[in-house]
Automatic annotation (TrEMBL):
PROSITE patterns: CUB. Residues 103-225 form the CUB domain. The keyword Disulfide bond applies. This is CUB domain-containing protein. Coiled coil: none annotated.
């Protein structure tokens, strides 16, 4: 008889818990996250506090398949369309991983993985496949998209007027407060920040495909980022790097000499580097090996440009823009212009240089302007569709923040 009674109590507790975990209860995560030190006024709260042991925050957790999930109750995981993969909150929660493969789905759960139908098999369907993303909580105003797998058709390389454009396939974002360029090709390990404006509730990620002969693959992690954290990117940054050193790579950079057309048309975005405390500048260098994977950003309509004509106003079509970029380590150059050894735009294939008299590539350049930013701009088409002139490889640059020395003051 006694055990019957405690079973009933247990059932009551479970019912209350299921009530708590009702789908669509916007305040649920708040309730679950609330700590127990606050004074509890209402009778309901007093009653619930008896069971406070089962309250836990909906934090990120690592699933058994190594994906990142959210710690939820088993019922919440089901209503969110997730899959329980391991436990969390001392076994009271499940690590809920949300992977979406159905086109036209919606999500508001942090760390949603958007995959092509049938991932990790190829997707060959033509059409539009979208994911509608809304805020996980009211303090979210940014998404970080991590391209774990990203293979779409290469940009056009057949027609001069459209070379570099994402004509067969493209990935686009709409509804964002920042301008997100359309991209295609190979972009694994790249990322993007998408801002959600105050008047917007949904941002749409779309993959538009034409033709059924291309094998596409994607697995995109959608991270929801709250406002004003130290990992919230500034508004103007499509890419945001927070480490002291790292690598900046143009979209569809192939780390190989083929295909000839790699960097994309219609790009205009900024890569930002978070200034670490005690650092005053950034050193940029070509990734190695430079001989196999040249740097190339269109300069002129035909053939190669002479040294010294691959910066500033000579970069009429496509360029990398770095504020007052110089080959002088640990020095301050205050005015912009080649004659004082400081440029702002770089292009060409002759190397990564700001000097006018060199035929050989400088391998490292420096900038001492804050914020640390590199803008990449390309126009609507690329030159030299057939010539192996490597004008359209794009860039792979390593960056290393430079400590403030006594000889350096920041501009
Ligand atoms: C717990 O609640 C108190 C009172 O509301 C608050 O001051 C404190 O910051 C909270 N602690 C945590 C870890 O949320
Ligand atoms: C999980 O998150 C960590 C930290 O952001 C990251 O390093 C790891 O790659 C993520 N794993 C997956 C499968 O997304
Ligand atoms: C989403 O998860 C990431 C870790 O993967 C975390 O940094 C971020 O704060 C979470 N966002 C929200 C709104 O909880």
């Amino acid at each position: 008889m006694g055990s019957d009674k405690s079973n009933k109590v247990l059932i009551v507790v479970l019912l209350i818990f299921i009530q708590l975990a009702k789908p669509g209860d916007a305040k649920l995560s708040e309730k679950l996250a609330r700590n127990n030190t606050e004074s509890e006024g209402t009778r309901e709260e007093k009653f619930l506090s008896l069971f406070s042991i089962v309250r836990f925050p909906n934090v990120v957790c690592t699933a058994t398949n190594s994906y990142n999930g959210t710690c939820l109750t088993s019922a919440e995981c089901t209503t969110n369309g997730g899959t329980a993969s391991g436990t969390c909150a001392s076994g009271f929660g499940v690590c809920c991983v949300v992977t979406i493969q159905t086109c036209g789905s919606s999500t508001s759960l942090n760390n949603t993985y958007w995959q092509n139908s049938g991932f990790s098999s190829a997707y060959t369907t033509a059409g539009q496949c979208s994911l509608f993303v809304s805020r996980a909580s009211s303090d979210v105003d940014q998404l970080r998209l991590e391209f774990l797998t990203f293979t779409l058709a290469q940009p056009d390389s057949a027609t001069l007027s459209t070379t570099g454009q994402c004509i067969t396939d493209s990935f686009t974002v709409s509804g964002s407060a920042n301008i997100v360029p359309a991209i295609c090709g190979s972009n694994a390990n790249q990322h993007m920040y998408v801002n959600i404006g105050p008047g917007t509730s949904t941002v749409t990620l779309s993959i538009i495909t034409s033709g059924t002969t291309t094998s596409r693959y994607w697995n995109i992690r959608v991270i929801q980022i709250p406002q004003n954290t130290d990992y919230t990117a500034p508004d103007n940054c499509l890419q945001w790097f927070t480490e002291a050193a790292g690598t900046l790579v143009s979209f569809n950079y192939q780390y190989a000499a083929a295909p000839i057309v790699q960097h994309l048309a219609y790009q205009d975005y900024t890569m930002c580097i978070r200034t670490n405390q005690g650092f005053c500048g950034v050193k940029y260098a070509l990734c190695t090996p430079t001989a196999s994977y040249p740097y190339g950003i269109s300069t002129v309509a035909a053939g190669t440009a002479a040294p010294g004509t691959v910066m500033d106003s000579s970069c009429a079509y496509d360029w990398l823009q770095i504020p007052c970029v110089t080959d002088q380590a640990n020095s301050i150059v205050t005015s912009v212009g080649a004659t004082v050894g400081c440029a702002s735009k770089l292009c060409g294939i002759l190397g990564f240089t700001v000097t006018t008299d060199s035929t050989t590539a400088t391998t490292s350049l420096y900038s001492y302007r804050r914020p640390f930013e590199v803008r990449f701009y390309t126009d609507y088409k690329e030159f030299l569709v057939t010539a192996a002139a490597a004008e359209n490889y794009g860039f792979c640059l390593t960056y290393t923040q430079q400590p403030c020395l006594s000889t350096v003051t920041s501009g």
